[in-house]
Structure formats: structure tokens, C-alpha cells
Amino acid sequence: MTELGTTEPSWKKNTIRTHQFNTTQGKSLHITVTPHLANVSVRLLLKQGQEPVRIDEFDRNITLPLPDDADLYTLSLGQTETLTADRWTWFIPGSDVGDSVEYTYYLGVQHVPLTEGGDVTPSVSPEYRGENFTLNYTVEIYSTQCLYFNEEIEDFRSDGCQPGPLTNTSLSHCRCDHLTAFGSGFQFFIAPNKLNILKAFQTLNFKENPVVLIALSVVVGIYLLTVIWAWRKDRQDSKKVGATILRGDQNGFNDHFYQIIVLTGSRSQSSTSARVFLTLIGEGGKSGPHELEDNNRTIFREGGVDTFILPTSRHLGSLYAVHVWHDNTGPCPSWFLDKIILQDLSDGKKYSFLCQRWLAVEEGDGRVDCLLSSATDKQISTLSQVFSSQTSKAFNDGHLWCSVVGRPAYSPFTRVQRVSCCLSLLLCTMVTNIMFFGREADFSKPPPVDILGFKVQIPISWAQLMIGVQSCLIIFPINLVIVEIFRHVASPPEKKAKDQNISSDSSTSSDVIDVEEIELQKVDKAWDFYRQPYSDNKMAEDKRKGWILPWWCVFIAWFLVFASCFLSALFTILYGQEYGREKAEAWLFIFFTSFFTDLLILQPVKVVLLAIGLTLVLRKPHDDAENQSPTLDYDEVCAYLSTIKATPVKKCHEEPPDSTKLAEMRVRRFVEISMKGALYEFAFYFLFVLVLAVIANGPRDTGMFHMTQNLRQTMNNGDDYSFKKINDVQSFWNFIRYTLTPALYGNQWYNGDSREPGGFMTDKTSYVVGPVRLRQLRVAKDSSCKLAEPVEGIFLDCTNAYSYLTQDSSSYGMGWSETPHANASSLVQNETNPWVYRHSADIPVVGTHSTYWDGGYYVTLANTTPTAVLATVAQLEPSGWIDRYTRAVFIEMTIYNPHANLFSVLNLLTEFTTVGNAYPRVDITTVRLYRFQTIWAWVVVGFEGVFIIFTLYFAFRELDYIVKLRSLYLKTFWGCVELSLVTLSLAEVGVMLYTLYIVLEFQSKQGTNTGPVERTFEKYRRAAYWDQINTYVLGCLVSVGTLKLLHLLRFNKHVVLGADTIKKAAGPLSGFFLIFTLVFIAFAMFAALVFCTTEEGFSPFVATLETMLTILLGKFYEMSDRDRIMGPLFTFTFITFFQWILITMVVAIIDVYSGYTGLYYRFSCPSNGCRLSIDSSEGSEQLYLDGYVLGDSQKIIFPGPRDTDKHARMEATLPEDLTNFTLCVHMRSNMSSSNKISLLYVQNIYVLMADPPVWDGEWHAICTTWRSSDGAWQLYADGALADSGSGFNVGGRVGRGGTWILGQDQDEVGGGFVAEQAFTGELSEVNLWDRVLSPAEIGADWAAFCNYHGNVIDWETTRIAIFGETRREEYQCSK
Which of 102, 136, 609, 834 is in the most buried spot, having the most CB atoms within 10 Å? Predict the structure, then answer.
């Protein structure tokens, strides 16, 4: 390490420039300083561990250069040459280094001022004499070690060899007390951990250390299950490979042949079960339609490449288009077509037809057919095409792990072989990882680099780099050989037997075909033609593009697979036994964490980056699938020819479905998708909530509550000396004397015998972990605290309340006396001195009167005898350790119950306020830190892993919804619930992993004894704190997740009724809530002012709100005798007003909107008013509004001729934005259907009534639906689907507000009518819903059409204003 630096100015005597570096145990240090100015001495100071704050905190120092009379080490090299140690180098032998394996040093550099320089040459720079002088220097720090090779243990050792002071960057000086070969400590190659194989075999003990064996067994078990699955998939893939000969377009033999390669996309559910048809279009005409079918193979699967041979009666010339479609039949008809490759076998010319779209009624444009034109070279080589091709190739075939699932069917590298290669790679990685596990800790980290004044630690050392390189050299050669053999091995020779016996097969096939001799000649001739595109010669030419190995090399590959797996597993087990159980468990956790991180995160990123690089460099998509030439069997051709002979060609008359049939298909498909989606969503959320319930309640134990209560009761025992009875300083010390000390240190049984081992509390089961300590927080003596003027002469000073700004962090002498060196930088900190302030990295504590920060004045009760504790109290109490500046005293301890395996972190807080009273507060947190002790604990860990997978899937799914819906996502209630659920799930994953990281520190046996004494409690409290946060997040997550289950019950009419009631009553409830809040705050302000000085719970104002809420919820609050009149009066008034008036109003509002109390009519009157009357003449009351009977239906009549005056306005508006709607209307008109009339205009959303046959002068029910998420819309006429589509205004919305006009087209809001666009006829039953109604809800007859009641606009409850000659009459709803 070499750095440049500048010392501080001469006048800053107590400041110093520091450098940080790391080294390891046993290595000597060499520090060389080169001043940039001659004749200036330099003082070096060194500190190990924490960074020093003051000069006196450094452990050692030296002044350079060393004096001339110093005894410098000198070594003679012959008669004329000697080596002498450098006077500017500070040499620290390795024996003086600490015992830590790795540690951090801080080097301070300070120039010696001229006044302290002593014998300094007078010819120094004049600047040296000034107080602002600074010295530029170069510091070089390096560590060395001398090693020799111990032949007995076959390893390098440093015993008896130490580096000498003559060592520099170009010379190693070793001083040894024995004659052996030795070398420098630097190692180019890193040796693995030693392993005595014979000893390891002799000491195998799987009972005590089974973790590695269990891990390997699980890996092999997963491999065997995966091999079974892969074998079945390989058999399925074998059925996908091959060419299918299609029927030609004429009887007998055809003269021209085309090869058709259909590539199905790799997206999820991109395969199709429908019948697929194809028409070829060329310069010479059309051919088709032809059905692409195969009765023996599974075709059109995800990522499939299907090859067909199409005979045609004539040559079509250059092909420029193909028309492809399917009939949308089968369970999964939706199809994602990637592209089609056509090859004219007569001239070998290829044509590419790019599709890359869905042929599905529910996707894209909703069509199941497409006309594809021939792609040019420029279209094929676009960046998007190339990147998509390269990425698909990389993931599905190139990436070893991903290709197990996405392996192309045409690839000779089978899934079984890929899974076996994955096993070999995994086991080889495991053995190399365990070989070098922990070796990097034996070498020092590189020193920090100074970048722009910041110390940046280089994240990787030379040892780590070399371990990585050596591991790669061990792993990849053997596995690369295995993979390449599997990829390039030839097929077994048995598969070519049929081609060698064609003549005999021809003779036998004649019996099957049963034709005359002349037909046999035609068969042979046809066979020669059919097989030519797939002949061995052609395949040999194709294979020359790559290298092919003999077929028997596959056995070599399998031998290498099993040999590498066996040896890797063997040495992994031996290393695991050598390490012991604890180290083996640590290695397993680290290995699998890094492995899955690399597999799931880093490797996909690498694949994508590689695909981007290949895209930018090559600009050519891979064409492996296009170049595959499946072999045609002679039997297949003979069977085809026999079919030609036996059955005549039937003309295919299939055509793409028309719009009507497509609309019916779309409705049926949407119903299927909705049902599947509902079932899937229910299953997903049920499992999600189940996993949440397990991870939330799995680690919980009823013993936690009982242990907490036991400790609370222990602290509150002792009658007058219990913790809850503390109210001043004296009662605090009495609690320690008479309650705490006997409870913690009463180490005798009932008969007087001492308990062994010690450390247990009086309950005989709770063990005190570590020392109990007292921590005090004080306020500083601050002159800012001013006394009132009338008493300034009576009292000397005052004290402040505690806060972060007023806390005291100074150090004092006995009795808080100001010592002469109390604030000096040379003050020595004593870890057991209760008068010295010490910092600590603790969590702030929220008390009743303030928030208390970390640090303070500590008293550690390290001696666990009652006598020692009482002696400590006897020293602290009379010396005034708690005085009027004390604001809080914490009694901190950790209790462990070995029988319940639970830890309790106790924090007994006593707050001393400025008014002189003390307020005790008990904080007990019980957690389980030794978690992995039972099988159930590991089951919970498994569920936590499943929860992480759920969360990642959930997050990606919701992110996709947010991208599609944008702001609309947050404008729905369930969208907000989903977002909250995702946010809480991600937060839970982070908190859970961090809590697990903290808990893992306690799994080793030394977990409770490591670290300095004062850090023990902080460690346990931090673990308990994060466990609490994890519990809080889990509680919120379970609550929101359970609430989400209501969404799954939205098909239940009672649940929908409740949701609709809340939605309808949202406006009135919001207004009422404002009234409720104002009245509640009014009562709270009264109570806070009147009772804050006399009653508990009414100060501060937040406490008043809490108290009044508890009263409102039914808890009786008894006022003291000091408020005998106002107290009862206030309580009676408050309870009466809220429980009998306001809450009753809430129930009334919900009851009105619930729909059970009758029909609620909404209407608005014009400026001149409206007439409301009741008629009881018929024996029952009837309500009239302006002469129209409310409760009966009405119709609006728009008579001819057309003009701009005849229209109606609905006195209704949208309360909120709509992202889905259904709009229904009854109409009768005999207008000409050639006019496209817009009956309704709602904020740029038109409902067109042109296509359906509704202009016949009869009543018709028209409904239209629209969904924002995908723009899907449907138009129903009399319950039958008339038209539909998708992609209309995707992500849009119908904004709130607006004006509803009937009979005219608005060119501006409420006006801008044009006579030619007016409607003539009759309208009724205009209803609007904020959701898409299903076909069943829309209905199929007038019994259903007459029962429409929209939840946004209800025709029967909406007032309608009419204008011009428009009139209103009663409407009898029937056909």
C-alpha cells in the first residue's frame, strides 16, 4: 500500500492525519515514510481495532528518522558490501501483532514541530518555522511473512522463521532458527485446505455430522426425480421431431413439393389444440387451404418446430404471402405463432414469414387468422428480431440450467443428458468450494484506496481472485468436455438400417399397398424423390458445419459424468467430516445462498448481456431450427402413398371464422378464462394465506407469553419494593436491594444448599445471560435554562428536560465532580468507571416522557453474588450517582430459559422528570434465537422459501398490471390493496432475511460469549428488536392478505351488496366522518384543558385522544374525587352524544343505502322548483314528481321531424372515473339503418347503434360493455352478441362528472347539436353499471331485460328533463 498525505498544521497539536490498512496474524509490518521536505522529522502513531478519536488513544508511536546512534540492524554481504536497516522505516515484528486472525490498523502521521525538533539542521525551509506549516509525504505499508515447507505435515509453516528489518519491496529478509527451505509469504497459487484421506475415512461419523451427507442425498434425490421427468419429456419431444407429408391438392402423385417449417413461440401457453390451416399465395396462384395435421405426432407445442411436406399439383412461382388460421377448437385454442419458413424443394429457395403475434380471440386484435407477407433480409435482421432470436437461443439451448426446461425438440442434446451435466457441474462446484472454504481469510485484504478523499476498500483480494481462477480450472474443463460430447455425438448406426435395405422394404411394402408392378415403380420413384431432401449426403453436408464424434463417444461422456459426480461427492463428504458440523453447516448455507443467487439473478443477466453483444456484433438471428432436416422413414412414405391410392383427395373448404362466429367464440372464451382465472386466483391466494399463517405462527410459542408474565411478576414482587412502586431515587435503590438482587442472585435452594451451576434466578429455570448493567442518561448543565425572574435570587439554577440536544456526554470524577482533565483529550476511558460517558451502538428507547438515545454512564454488575451487588449499590447511592440531572436509568439484562428455549430481553426504565417524580416502565421482549433445533423449525424455513417465491411472482405480476393500467391501477380499491400486499410482502422478505442473518450469529456455541462485555446486551436487544419488527410486518401482511380473500367472494351476491352499499354511501359517510371528527376533537380539547392537571390519561393531547377512544369503545373510566361534577357530566354527555346520536346516524346512513329499507329516489329540481305530491286515493300511497309516478318506468319519445330542440337530459353524473362499464337501453325506432346514430355521448365514449337490426319499429334491448385493461368491448342486441372487439382505448377511463344527453350528439358539453344527427323514436331503461356484466346477467329474454337496475345510473330513480316536443309516457316493459 502506497499513499500520499499531508500533515496537519503545526498549531494543531491534538489533530493528526490517519491512514487505514489491514493485515493478518503473524505477519510483520514495515512502514516507510518519505518526507517531501528534507530535514523534517516525522512522528508515527499506530492503533489497532477501532479508529482513534484522540492522540492518546494510539497504542504505540515512533519518531523517524531513527537517530544516528540507534542500533540499526546490519548484515555483511562479503567483505565490501553491507546491508543496513532504513532509518525511515518502522519495523514491527510479527510477534508484536495481536492475536486476531485479521484486523485493522490506523496509522497516524504528524510532523515534529520545529520547537520540538531537538537537533534539527538549521538549514531547513523558512516555512518550517511557521505555525501553519504542513508536510507532504509518501507512506508505504506492507506486511511480510517467512514460510518453510514442513515435509511431515506437507504444508507451509512459519514456526521458527521471522521476517527481519532488512526486508523491503525488492528483498525478503528471513531470520530462522533451523535449516529448512523457506520462501516469502506471498503465494501465487492458493493451496486448498488440507485433507488426510485415510484419517477422514477412519473418523467418518454421520451421526454427529450428517449435514453434508443429507445435502448430497437431497441433491441426488432431486436429480433422480428430475431425470424421470426429463425422460418423459424427451419421449414427448421425440414425437415432435420429424416431417409430416400432407395430402396434395389432386389425386395421385404431385409434381412439386414445398417444405413448411412452423415455429411456435416459447411464451407461456402459446401452444394450440385447434386445427390449423394454411394457404400458399405465389405468383403462379394459390394452393389450399391445407390442414396442417399429424395423427402420430404432437404438433404446435410451446417452442415447437414442426415440419411438413406439401405436395402441389403445380409450381406456384415465387411465394409472397401465406394465409394461416385456426378454428379455435379444443381446450387451449390460443396460439402464438412465431414465424413460418417455406422452402421450394425444386430450387431450394427459402421464404420467411414473420408473425410473432397471438392468433386468439382474447389476445391482440381478437382474430384467429393473419395474412403474412414474405419478409425481406432487412426485416429479418432488425435488432428486435436478432435480439429475440439470440435470447431465445441462449436461454432455451445455450444456458445449461434453463435449457433443461426449454430444450428445443430438434436438439440432439437430450434433457436427461442436460440434467446429468447440471448434477456434475453442481457437485464439482461443491467440492471446489469446500476445498477452498475459508482459505481467503488466511490472507490480508488489499489496503483501502483513497479516491477523492474517500477510503474505498477493494472488494476482492489476490487470494480470492486466485481461488476463483483455480476453481474454474478444476470445474469447467471436465464439464465442458462432457457437454460438447453430448452435443456433437452421432446417432447410433441402427437408425440407418432401413436405408440400406430399401429394395427389400419395397418388396414387402407392395403387400401393404397392394398395387400392380407399375405402381411399385411409381412408389420407388416417389420414394427417391421424397427422401432426397433428407438424404444422408445432404445431412452430411449440413453436419460439416460442425464437428461430429463417433456414436460410441456417448459412453465416454456418461462415464465422465458418473466419475465426476462420484469423486466430487466423496471428497465433499470427507471435507465435511474434516471440518466438523458447525463449519460444515456454515459452508452449506453460504454455498447454496451464493449458488442460487448466481443461478437466479447473475446468470440470466449474463445471458441477456451476451445476447445484446451478439446482436450488435453479428446482426444475424440464429437459424438452427430452420436448418434442421428431419429424416423421413420409408414406412411413413409408403403409408402416405397407400393413403393416396386408397382415398381420393377431398377438397378443404375451411375458411377463417366470420365476425359473428368470432364474436361468439370470444364470449365463450372469455367465460372460460374468467372461470379459470377465478379458480386460479382462489388457489393462489389460499396457498399464499396458508404460507403466511405458517411463517407467522410457526415460530410462535405460548410459552413466550408465560415467560414474559413470569418475569414481569418477578420484577413486581416485593410489595413496597416492587418495580412498579418506584417513585423517587430512594425507592429505586430499594428495588435493587430488596427485589432485583434476591431475584437474580438468590443461588440457594430452600434447604440452604447452593445451586450448581450458578446464574439461575429464584424461579430455578431462568438463567441470566451475561452481566446485568445499569445505564444512566443525564442532561447537561446548560445556561440556556433560565429561572423565572421573581425567584432568581432564591434558586441557583434549573435543569432541562431530556432530549438529544440537551443530553450530557461529558466525563466526570467521583460524585460528578469536574476533574482537571475532565474534558481534556488525554482522558483515559475506564470501561468500569460509572462516571465516564461511553458510546454504544444501541437502539433508541421510547419512554413515557421522552425518547432516550444510545450511550450513557454504565455500571456493570459483573460479579454474580448478592454481596457484590449490594456493595456496588452502597458505593453509588451515597456518592450521588443519581442526582437532579439524571433523566433516565435503565436496568438491562438478558434472561434465557433452556427448558422453553426462549430468550427475554428486559429493559427496566425509570424516568426521572423535572418535577421530581419517577415513572417506572417495564419492557420485556421474548424471542426464540436458537430456532433450528427441531424438524418443525426447518419446515417453517421451507415455507419461508416458498413465501419468497410467492412474493417475487406476486411482485412481477403486479408490476405488469401497473405498467398496463398506469394511474388506473391506483384508482380502484382492490388495486390499492394489491399494492399494499406487494409492498408488505417485499418488506417482509427484507426484514425476514435480515432477522435471519442476525439470528444466525447465535447458532454457534460461542454465540453468547463473544464480543466485549458491554456489547452483549446490545446484540440480544438488536435481535429482539428486529424480531419485533418482523412480527409487526407479518401482522400487517396477514391482515391485508386475509382482507384480500373478500375479493375472491365477489361472486357472492351478499358480498357484492355490502361493497355496493359502502360505495353508494361513501359520500354521505365521508361527510359524516368529518362531522364526527370535529365533534370528537371538540370534546377532546375540552377534556384536555379541564382534566390535564387532575386526571391521568389526559395529558398530553395525544393521550387524551387515546383515553376518549377507549371510553367510546366501552371501557369505563372512573374520574377521581377532584372532578366530582365535571367528570361525570363530561362522561355522560360524551357517551350519550356519540353512542346514541352519532353512531345511530352511521347505522341509518348504511341502512338507507343497503337496499333493504326500500327504494331510494334521487332527483334534482330545476331553478323554478318541482312539485312533489302523494296520492292515497287508490288505497295505497303513490309518489308523484311533476306529475310522473316515481317507482313506475317511463319512456322518452322523440317525434319527427329531426331538429336540434328535441332532446332529454338525465339529471345524473358519474361520481368517479370508470375503467369498466356496461350500458343498456331499450329503444324503438324505424329510422333508416344507413344512418349511424350515436344515441349516447359520455365524455368521448360513443355507443353506436348501426350494425344490429334494430330499426324495424319494434322494441329492442341494446347493451354494450367495455373494459379498460385490454380495451375489450361487446355489443348485445336482445341478449345476443352482435359485435365485439378489443384494443379500444386500452388503459383509458370515463372521467367523473359529465352531462348525459338523450336523442342528440353533443359537439360541446350539453349542446352543439346538429339536426341531421338527431334521433327519432322512443327510449327507455337507460342503465349504467361500473363493471362488465356477463352474458348471463344481460339475459336472453324480456323477463331479464325488464329488471335492469344500474348501480351507477338507475333509470327508475333518475330524474329526466325533456326539451322541445319531446314527451314522456308510461312504459310497459315487454316485447
Answer: 834
Please list, in sequence order, all residues whose beta carbon lies within 8 angstroms of the beta carbon of residue 472, skipping any fewer than 6 positions away.
Answer: none
* pLDDT higher than threshold 90 for residue 888: yes
Residues pairing with 358 in the sheet: 336
Give the angle 465-468-471 at the CA atoms, nearest 5°: 150
CA distance 1107 to 1111: 6
Match 395525544 to its residue by C-alpha cell. 1102
* CA 958 to each of CA 105, 947, 953, 991: distance values in angstroms, whole numbers, following the listed order: 49, 16, 9, 21
C-alpha cell at 871: 456493595
State how far the Cα of 1340 lies from the Cα of 1337, in Å rounded to an integer: 9
Residue 167 three-state SS: coil
| Cα separation, 343 vs 1003, whole angstroms | 67
920 beta partners: 910
Q: Which helix (H) or strand (E) holds 697?
A: helix 659-697
What is the distance between the alpha carbons of residues 49 and 23, in angstroms, rounded to a whole number?
A: 11
pLDDT for the residue 504: 40
> Burial of 1125 by CB count in 10 Å (0-12 exposed, 13-18 middle, 19+ buried)?
exposed
Closest CA to 992 of 921, 943, 1050: 943
> In terms of residues, how long is the chain?
1375
Q: E strands, 49-166, where?
A: 60-64, 74-77, 81-84, 89-92, 102-111, 136-144, 146-150, 155-157, 161-163
Mean per-residue pLDDT over the chain, rounded: 77
163 neighbors 28 (Cβ within 8 angstroms) = yes
| Residue closest to 200 by CA, chosen among 652, 570, 637, 574 | 574
Three-state secondary structure call for residue 104: strand
- DSSP string for 294-338: -SSS--S-TT-EEEEEEEESS---SEEEEEEEE---SS---EEEE
Contacts of residue 671, Cβ cutoff 8 Å, sequence gap at least 6: 1334, 1335
At residue 220, the 3 state secondary structure works out as helix
Query: Distance between CA 92 and CA 27 in Å, rounded?
Result: 9
555 Cα distance to chain centroid: 44
Cis peptide before 834 (omega within 30 of 0): no
Contact 704, 393 (CB under 8 A): no
- pTM (whole model) above 0.70: no
d(CA 726, CA 968): 58
Tell me the pLDDT tens digit for each residue of 1033-1058.
988 888 888 887 777 776 666 666 77
Instruction: Give the C-alpha separation, 1088 to 1080, whole Å.
Output: 12
In angstroms, rounded to a whole number, what is the distance separating the alpha carbons of residues 983 and 955? 8
Dihedral angle at the C-alpha atoms of 123, 124, 130, 136, nearest 10 degrees? 170
- State the Cα–Cα distance between residues 430 and 418, nearest whole angstrom: 18
Question: Is the CB of residue 114 less than 8 Å from the CB of residue 124?
Answer: yes
Most confident segment among 443-457, 489-503, 1222-1236, 1290-1304: 1290-1304
Range picked from 116-130, 736-750, 993-1007, 1165-1179 for highest mean pLDDT: 736-750
> Hey, is 960 helix, strand or coil?
helix
Q: Rounded CA gap, 1240 and 1238, in Å?
A: 6
Cell digits of residue 1364? 322541445
Q: Give the integer Cα–Cα distance in Å for 1115 and 1147.
A: 22
The enclosing H or E element of 198 equals: helix 197-202
* CA–CA gap between residue 1197 and residue 1322 (Å, rounded): 4
Residue type, 1055: V
Say how far apart CA 134 and CA 111 lie, in whole Å. 8
How far apart, in whole angstroms, are the C-alpha atoms of residue 322 and residue 258? 13
How many CA within 13 A on the CB side of residue 694? 17
Give residue 791's identity as a one-letter amino acid code: V
SS3 1086: helix
